Amino acid sequence: MRLPAWICALGLMAGGAAGAAEGAHVGEVVPSPVLRAVGGGRQALLAGGAAAHVLVFVRPNQDHSVETLAALTTCAERFGGKPVRWVAVVSSGWSDDVVRGAVAASRTPMPVLVDEGDALYGRLGVRVHPTIAVTDARGRLVAWEPFHKVNQCDRLAARVARALGEADDAAVALADQPPPGLFPNQIEGAVANRHVRMGEKFFRAGLYARAAEEARLVLEGDPRHAGARLLLADALAAQGSCRDTTAPRLACAARP
C-alpha cells in the first residue's frame, strides 16, 4: 500500500534529524592514525605527552571554518605553556593549494593533517563543519562540539580545562549557560567592544568585508566610537574602498 505523502515527509524529517545527531560519543577512544601534514611530513593525530588534544575538523572553502581557525588561535593563548595539542583535520578530497589558502587566511599556527580516504571522518561520523573534538591524554573523547557562533571560545576553553583536570562539569555548564548577571551585553559598551574585537580578528584573517560589517554595526549606534572608526578605515583601505561614496567619510578621514 502506498503511504500518503505527508507520512513520507514526516519520515524524511525524522531521518534527517537523526542523521544530524550522528557523530562520536563522549567517552569513546579516538584513534591516532599517522596522517600526512600539509606542508610536509607525517604526524600522529594524538601526540604523546599532551594532556589534552583539540581536533578541529574543517572545510577549507567555508567561511565558518576559516573564522573558527582564526578564533581558536586566540583561544589557544589561554593555555599557553600547558600540554595541549591543537590540530586541524581536513578531508583528503581537498587539494593542498586550497588548504594552504585557508591556513593563510586564518593565520593559524596549528598543524593541518589530511585524513586519507576520510577514514577518520567515517570512524567518528563527522557531518558538520567545523566540528571540534576534545580528548584527554588517553585519547578518550570528553567533548564533541559542532559549530557554535556564540560563546565558542568560552565553551571550548571550559572543555579543555576539564580534560586537563582543571574544571568540572559545573564549570562546563556555566560556560554553556552563564547566569544573566554575567552576560557581556549588560555591561555598558561591552557589545560594541566585542564587535570591534571580532572585526579585528576578521581583519587579521584577511576577511576585510566581514571586519567592515562589524565596525558598521557599532557605528550605527555610536558614530563616534574611535575603535570602530579606525577598524572601518583599515578595512576599507585594505579593500581599496575608502573613496566609496557609501562609506562613512569620518572613518576614511581617520586614515591617510
Could you describe the 3D structure shown?
The chain is an alpha/beta fold and 256 residues long. Helix content is 45%, strand content 14%. The chain has helices at 5-20, 63-76, 96-106, 119-124, 152-163, 169-176, 190-204, 208-221, 226-239, 249-253; strands spanning 34-37, 42-44, 52-57, 84-91, 112-115, 131-136, 141-146. The chain has a 7-stranded mixed beta sheet. Helix 5 (152-163) packs antiparallel against helix 6 (169-176). The longest helix is centred in the first third of the chain and has 16 residues, at 5-20. It is globular. The termini are far apart. The model is unreliable at 1-21 (pLDDT under 50).
Features:
alpha/beta, 10 helices, 256 residues, disordered N terminus, 7-stranded mixed sheet
What is shown here, in short?
The chain is an alpha/beta fold.
Helix and strand topology:
Blueprint: H1 5-20, E1 34-37, E2 42-44, E3 52-57, H2 63-76, E4 84-91, H3 96-106, E5 112-115, H4 119-124, E6 131-136, E7 141-146, H5 152-163, H6 169-176, H7 190-204, H8 208-221, H9 226-239, H10 249-253
Helix pairs in contact: 2-3, 2-5, 5-6, 7-8, 7-9, 8-9
